[in-house]
Design a protein that fits this description.
Length: about 270
């Protein structure tokens, strides 16, 4: 009688199971099989590596996406927003004035700025950097008077690089401050401020308190202003931590907002 076709397959499978169970005892099973069955079994075992034959497929765990920082939390155009961007392309309305100004060392700033400003001045002092708050909020009229004085003293070109036209100043938002060096007052409002103890400390630590050094040598082309190591802008610690971690050099770059050296309208 001819052997039934399925008998060879069944015998081969049983033999394979036995080999997996008893390891080295597999050679004794060859004698249990007919010549053709042994040949089939040998081909099966030689074509499939043992670790692949007995191991379940490995499924890589699905990667958890990194959380992204939400840059849509606040407006960049509303002057009352902590993230408003004011530059030569984005002015503030002449009549705008914050409604929550408070006094810090004789200057006015938005209420949200006060705790971080005081904490920063205290931390700097503990580290040997004597920060003096020089100016905060300026109204449209105050900015106009200050700009006119600088232009009369230093010329139009100098004023364009260092002093905003009225309506284009961050100081009108109440979110910006100018700081002096208590250790080297001769560098106040001067480019050498960045080399003072206070200027160096601010460049390294201002972000820890929610402030950015707004105008730096690296971002001049973007912001439109020459470097001012003394001019700080408060945006809150959450945003400054993001900017610091990502190495983002300006608010314009962070939010994709147009800036540059030219005023809107010329």
């Amino acid at each position: 009688m001819r052997p039934r076709p399925w008998r060879s397959v069944v015998v081969a499978v049983l033999a394979l199971v036995a080999v997996v169970a008893v390891g080295g005892a597999a050679t004794g099973l060859w004698g249990m099989l007919s010549g053709s069955e042994a040949s089939q079994f040998r081909g099966l075992t030689e074509s499939v590596p043992w670790d692949e034959a007995i191991s379940a497929p490995t499924i890589a765990p699905r990667a958890t996406p990194e959380p992204t920082f939400d840059l849509q939390q606040h407006s960049t155009s509303d002057p009352a927003s902590p993230w408003v961007i004011v530059n030569k392309q984005h002015p503030v309305a002449e009549e705008y004035e914050p409604t929550d100004l408070v006094d810090v060392d004789g200057v006015r700033v938005r209420a949200a700025v006060e705790p971080d400003l005081r904490a920063m001045v205290d931390a700097a002092g503990a580290a040997g950097a004597r920060l003096v708050v020089r100016s905060g909020f300026r109204s449209y009229a105050e900015q106009a008077a200050g700009r006119a004085a600088i232009e009369a003293r230093r010329g139009f070109a100098h004023a364009e690089r260092y002093s905003a036209r009225p309506g284009f100043s961050e100081h009108q938002t109440g979110l910006a401050v100018d700081l002096d060096s208590g250790s080297e007052p001769g560098c106040n409002l001067q480019t050498c401020f960045t080399r003072t103890t206070e200027g160096v400390w601010l460049a390294e630590h201002a972000w820890e308190f929610g402030f950015v050094v707004r105008y730096t040598e690296a971002n001049t082309a973007v912001t439109g202003y020459a470097p001012e190591g003394w001019h700080l802008r408060w945006v809150g610690r959450e945003l400054t931590a993001h900017l610091h971690a990502e190495g983002i050099g300006s608010l314009e770059e962070a939010f994709g907002v147009v800036g540059g050296p030219e005023y809107v309208g010329g």
